[in-house]
UniProtKB/TrEMBL annotation:
It comes from the Eukaryota. ANK repeats lie at residues 41-73. Keywords: ANK repeat. GO terms for cellular component: pi-body. The keyword Mitochondrion does not apply. It comes from Aquila chrysaetos chrysaetos. It holds the Pfam family Ank_2. This is Uncharacterized protein.
């Protein structure tokens, strides 16, 4: 049976709210999720973590070499973080993390809007 990586990683993100960061790290490490895996819609694990403003998982992925400047169809990781349905504090922490890792706040989406608009 083939593992659907996107569903698995989404489950890890949900699971991360109920367990320790160390346990999430071990799940990602033990299941050998590649930092640049391509999930549904071409999203990377970092894009998935940013889309739910999961600061701890985003930091883990960035520390392991994930690309904070990743974009697909003019939609960036920073845009995903800015539009996350999460607490303002989590969104802010995730956005600050991405900016500290060289995410470009000046890139525009296909509607010519920057992440902060």
């Amino acid at each position: 049976m083939e593992l659907d990586c996107h569903k698995f990683f989404r489950a890890v993100l949900v699971f991360s709210r109920a367990v320790s960061f160390k346990e999430v790290f071990l799940i990602i490490h033990n299941h050998c999720i590649s930092i640049e895996s391509s999930f549904q819609f071409g999203w990377t694990p970092l894009m998935c973590a940013a889309s739910v403003a999961d600061f701890a998982v985003a930091r883990l992925l960035l520390d392991r070499g994930a690309n904070a400047r990743f974009e697909i169809d003019k939609y960036t990781v920073l845009m995903a973080a800015c539009t996350a349905h999460a607490s303002e504090e989590n969104v802010l922490k995730t956005v600050e993390l991405l900016l500290s890792r060289n995410a470009d706040p000046n890139l525009t989406c296909r509607y010519q809007k920057t992440p902060c608009l």
